[in-house]
Specification:
Number of strands: 4
Order of helices and strands: EEHEE
Radius of gyration: 13 Å
Helix content: 10-25%
Length: 72
């Protein structure tokens, strides 16, 4: 049996205050995306930016960390 491949997802930062304005990374799970978002938020504190995962906007808190979706 061959191991199942993990889905590669695109994590993209679009930053109005930085150069380059757009940085895209490949991640294989949401936990990695959350860790990278926390680092980016700390490094670019005060910048105006948004985050997308596979083209969908990701909500973040004031520290740039991922806000978990509420399960209903």
């Amino acid at each position: 049996m061959t191991p199942k491949r993990k889905r590669v997802r695109e994590l993209k930062f679009i930053n109005s205050d930085a150069r380059p304005k757009t940085v895209a990374l490949e991640v294989t799970n949401v936990e990695d995306a959350a860790t990278i978002m926390a680092w980016y938020g700390a490094f670019h504190a005060g910048d105006r930016y948004r985050v997308e995962l596979d083209g969908q906007k990701i909500d973040k808190d004031q520290n740039g960390e991922m806000v978990p979706a509420l399960e209903g």
